[in-house]
Structures are given as C-alpha cells and as structure tokens.
Amino acid sequence: MNVLPSVTARKGVKARAALGKAFQNYFERKEHLNGSALVQARYNHSREYKVSIPDIAAFEAGGCIATLTNTFPTAYWMLAYVYSHEEVLKDCRAELSTITTTKIAENGITVCSIDMTSIKSSCPVITATLQEVLRHTAVGSSFREVTEDTIVDGYRLKKGNTFIMPSNIVHTDPNTWGESTKGFDHRRFLKTQEKKSPNPKAFRAFGGGSTLCPGRHFATTEILAVATMFIARFDIKAVGSWPSPIPNSAPLWAQVVQADLEFEVDVTARKGLAGKYEWGFHLSESRVVLSMAAEDLEEGKTE
C-alpha cells in the first residue's frame, strides 16, 4: 500500500535493495557480457535510452518476478508430471524423435539437433501436456469490476462489486472438464475426431482479456525448451515418490504452485543412447502461434 514501506515492509524493502545492489555490481563488472543473450539485450536497450546502471539494476530486480516466479515452477512441474507417468514420457519422446535430426561427425560422435520452434508446430502431445500441467498447477485469479447488475447462473452480481475468478476452481469444474477432472490426462487438450478439445475460455493459466499475460509465448518457449532438453537426454527417477502440488503454497504474486518440496532424484544419461553423443538445441524464426489462451485462437487466424 506504499505506507511507510521501510517500516511496514522492512524485510521486503531490505531484500529488494540487496538484490538491486547485487545486479548493479554484476553490470558494473560487465559480467553480463558472459551472460545470456536476453540479459545482454535488456541491458543494451536500457543504455541506448540513457538509463543509468543503478536504475537498470533496479529494473532487473523487479523483472525477476516476471521472468522466474512462474516459469521456473512450471518447468519443475512439467518434468515431475512427465517423468512420473511412463506413458507420458514415452509419448513425448516419440514426438521428439520426429523433429530430431542426427548425423555422424568425422570423429564418430553422433550429433543430435532439435529445433525448439518445431515443438509448437509438430509436437501436439508435448504442448498439450504442458497445458494439462498448468491446469493442475495454475492458481492465479482474474479480477473484474461489475459495471452493471448482472445475473449469472442465478447469482446476482451487483454493479460496483469485484468479481474474482480463481483459475484452480475453473480448472477443476466437472461441468467443463468431465468426471476425470482430478486425473492427469496429457491428451486432454488434443482435438481428435472422437472428442473435442475443452472450451479454450475455460483455460485460465495465463489470465485473459485485459489481464492476459503478455509474456505467455516467451514463457511457454522457455518451459518447453528446458523440458525438451531433459526429456531428450536424461532419465529421471524419484528417490521415493514424486510430490504433488499443494495449491496453498503459492505466494500472492505467483500464478503457479511453487516448487518448495525438497526431494531427491536420480538423473542418468538416457538408456538406449549408447556411444558418444553431442546435442544441439536452437530456435528458428516462426510465425506459428501456440494457443495458450482463447485470445490466441483469434491471433492465429491472422498469422
């Protein structure tokens, strides 16, 4: 509420200042030149507009919330759900094999290459799996002001009140998702001749309307890239049992259940990849729109 935050939010203000100072030291020592293309592009863009390094550092401290708060736990849950279901892992690997190119180098090493962009256009099971993961783990809410008295399913929404739509409630409604709503079905979002895909407006992982997440395509690419690298190269087994998401573990600013459960896993090179392998992952340009919200269906028609 910005009421004497140094007093009412002392711990948060102190932590934010410490993080900003760490970013400032990072940029002043030019360590970002060894960092990702993203952090370099963000830094260069700000400097072009004469933004000072302390201000850039402050922006990055806030930017971490947008770039990491939801993408990291979603990637975590994607791997957990895929590796804890043998059929899902098998289907995902079968799809990846169709977009993986291989060649034998002069030194005898098998070089495998995957174009991450192809996942959006050629791997419907993998993308549907991500949507199902988000259906189980998204816990954000959309807020709307009621501008006119309205009757919805017998309930009167009075003008001036606030209407709250928790995504985890919408995502578990049997009227929309069927009696199997509590189960994990990695093919639920696939449209086939036997069944229709769920109503896209009922999938609220990235919000919708005026509050639709503007970075959903970037975040989706990040998550799919991380998951693909693991699925293609490694076998992962939990020591004990895989954890289940706990809805109330998400802080106020998060849209996805946090990965705050510690457990051990065994990570080994994927079985069946005997010999020496090298892997390459890259992104090519594409105008394919992956539908992660109802609005994307309209956007895809214009691409």
Describe this structure as you would to a colleague.
- With 303 residues, the chain is α+β, with helices and mostly antiparallel strands.
- Helix content is 44%, strand content 14%.
- It has helices at 5-8, 10-28, 37-48, 53-68, 71-83, 86-99, 117-122, 124-137, 167-170, 174-177, 216-233, 294-302, and strands at 100-104, 110-115, 141-145, 150-152, 155-157, 162-166, 234-238, 265-269, 277-282.
- A three-stranded mixed sheet has the order 1-2-9. It has a two-stranded antiparallel sheet with strand order 3-6.
- β4 (150-152) and β5 (155-157) form a beta hairpin.
- α6 (86-99) packs across α8 (124-137).
- The longest helix is centred in the N-terminal third of the chain and has 19 residues, at 10-28.
- The two termini are 42 Å apart.
Largest sheet: number of strands, sense, barrel closure: 3 strands, mixed
Gap from first CA to last CA: 42 Å
Number of domains: 2
Mean of pLDDT: 88
For the record, the CATH architecture of the largest domain stands as Orthogonal Bundle
What fraction strand?
Answer: 5-15%
**How many distinct beta strands?**
9
Taking pLDDT < 50 over at least 5 consecutive residues as the criterion, the unreliable ranges are: none
Q: What top-tier CATH class of the largest domain fits best?
A: Mainly Alpha
Task: Describe the global form.
Answer: globular
CATH superfamily of the largest domain: Cytochrome P450
SSE arrangement, N to C: HHHHHHEEHHEEEEHHHEEEH
